[in-house]
Amino acid sequence: MIIAFFLSLMQLIPNAQLQDLNPGYLIITHDTGNCKLSLCSFGHIGYTGSNQAQGEGFKYPKTSVSHLFFGGLAIGNSKEYVADAFFGLQSVDSRDFRIIDSLYRFSRLGLQEYKMAINDGNHPTPKNLRIEQYSLAIPDPRYDDGVIIEYAITNEGAAPIGDLYVGIFLDWDLGTANTNRAGTDTIRRATWMRQAATDNPTVGTKILYPYSWANLFCTDHDIYVYPVQGMHDTTKYKIMSGAIRKYASDRNYDWSTCNSVGPFLLNPGERVVCAFAILGGTSLANFQANCDSLQSFYDNNVGISAAPKKNLPFLRLSPNPFNKKATITLSLPQKEFFSLSLYDITGRLLTNLYRGKGDSYTGEIKRPQSSGIYFLRLEGQETKKTWKVIVTE
Q1: Distance of alpha carbon 225 from its chain centroid, rounded?
Q2: Tens digit of pLDDT for each residue in 128-147?
Q3: Residue 291 parent element (H or E)
Q4: Burial class for 378, CB neighbours closer than 10 Å (0-12, 13-18, 19+)
């Protein structure tokens, strides 16, 4: 009753005034980079509800309209237990999470960072799961095309919880909703959406951790949403667990996406960490490159909290941005045959810088014809990675 009253009251309050609420904000908007993304303390993504009463959705670039209708976190281990903050039934949003600590500013890296904590206390049969959310946006132009969200999930109950899946459900609408296309990238653990007529922009979700996925799903609204004016928990569980799969749209229509990880076994007191990026690109190729850039940032700066990191390739471009030329220093975890190439923002190959066998490379890159964003792509037998390059006037 109190929550319902508060939710009706918050629709009358501007975002800037939604503060000092146990002890922070009901909703915040990451806006330090090339995009904007709103996050809510109830686990919703984009807005405080599907009525879009508060929030800015996801804007890419940040000066555009929102491409996100509504989204949310979901956790479940059966059709009887799905705790989530996405669509419910008959146009009523699911709100299974209870706020422990609402969104507040936090500094791990000195960037635009927020934390919050919720549990599954509003679910009819809670399992005493505590979820701590950490999110950050990065102003560095190499990593500013998305927002990283990390969830630390702890079993605070007395019984083990097995077969647990964690997913991000997002209902994207780019332009006219029934002219959208959706797809997946199993290598990058990503889902994406675009308009049928153009891939500028392409927006979507990438799994940053763990380095695996349970499902990458393109949701046909005609099958899974419109018949019940929302989404049934049984459907959400089948999607998260991979019991049903659809990797690409089969026509221009209204689509949603889900990226899920698991299954996990959480004994009492145990914790699991998973992380996602919500991001955009000026083309599908640019979206994929931005996926790689955010993965690199997460692995090198954030992911230490998730698990011991595997050896990763390292590249230093000095300077970056550059005007005339820059020096490349590359090291790989092991000797292998690899190539290093330069691409423009459309994904067109400009030049092959190196092709051969080894575990390192040192060389020089000269200025392309025009200023803008370019990408260095490492393609090895075992190692693949992309780095953003910025050329100035």
Answers
A1: 22
A2: 999 999 999 999 999 999 99
A3: helix 284-297
A4: buried
User: Torsion-angle region of residue 84: left (phi > 0), alpha (psi -120 to 50) or beta?
Assistant: beta
Within 13 Å and on the Cβ side, how many CA atoms surround 170? Answer: 31
**Domains of the chain (ranges, CATH numbers):** 2-305 (2.70.98.10), 314-391 (2.60.40.1930)
What phi-psi label fits residue 316: left (phi over 0), alpha (psi between -120 and 50 degrees) or beta?
beta
pLDDT at 22 over 80: no
Please count the other Cβ atoms lying within 10 Å of the Cβ belonging to residue 367: 14
Query: CA 288, CA 310: separation in Å to the nearest integer?
Result: 21
Residue 281: phi, psi to the nearest 5? -155, 160
The pLDDT-based confidence of 303 (bands split at 50, 70, 90) is confident
- Residue 308 DSSP code: P
What is the rounded end-to-end Cα distance, in angstroms, of the chain?
59
Closest-CA residue to 85 (of 143, 152, 40) = 40
Q: Is the pTM of this model over 0.85?
A: no
Q: Which two tokens stand for residue 162?
A: 């097995």
E strands present in 138-270: 146-155, 161-172, 180-185, 190-195, 202-209, 215-220, 255-266
Mean pLDDT confidence for 35-64: 97
Compute the average pLDDT of residues 285-296. 95
Q: Which of 144, 206, 199, 192 is nearest to 175 (CA)?
A: 199
